[in-house]
Amino acid sequence: MLDETDVDAGPSTSPVIWIDGTLHTDAREARIGATDHGLVVGDGVFEALKVTPAGPFAVRRHLDRLERSAAAMGLPTPDRGTVLAGIDAVLADRRFAQGKVRITYTGGDGPLGSQAAYGSPTLVVASAATTVPPASTDVVTAPWRRNEHGALTGVKSTSYGENVRGLAYATALDCGETIFLNTAGNVCEGTGTNVFCVFGDEVVTPPLSAGPLAGVTRDLLLEWTPVVERDLTLEEALSADEVFLTSSLRDVQLVERWDGHAFTGLGARTARLVALFAARSGADLDP
Q1: pLDDT tens sequence across 255-278
Q2: Model's pTM, two decimal places?
Q3: Which residue segment(s) compose the domain that 232 sits in?
Q4: CATH number of the domain residue 125 falls in
């Protein structure tokens, strides 16, 4: 089942882009330097948050994580007021109800190699419409492993080539997401999602020590409902009654099949969590 999440709905949804204080309504005019370290070596971090009819969701939590990721990359702390000004600018005249904001923060101008950047950091904020994700999807296990001990483990870095490769693998198999195992052989995460398994009345998700990103939606579910954090083998995950994914753009999404295996549960527990997340997030735009 191909996941249509985050598909551009057409020319009327062309991104609005703000770069270091300058707003561009024509994406073709939005430019950064060819020696920007984010472009040259992926020396940058980013956040992507959903926009609802009421506005951008969980901004504080996303900016908290942006700052943590920047610190892990050795980048200066981004100025929160400036980032908020960029978000306001790209959403000021929005013509969509459902969308996303993407915040990209890089080392700025730098050498054509892995030495430290020597320019001022670059801050890019962009907004665009997205389609509503489907209620369910199919997933496939990646033929590659996540390194749960790597320098970028748990960092939302712009070095996203592995995720691009993983999502293309899923698309080629008519699936909406690829799930990575870690070097220990345990379930880690999707290319842009966290994984949850339901066993009877127990909901389980891999711990951060398994290598996944601490997703904002994951964190909220852990606060709003009982969830056990423990390692899961692939075999154990496939024996679950239900499996679902979480992310900032998918919210809570049921998995119908994993590597072709159909789960025996009816999705009732997942449906209750979908309703819980919708109610709690709808009542508080910045929980």
Answers
A1: 999 999 999 998 999 999 999 999
A2: 0.94
A3: 136-283
A4: 3.30.470.10
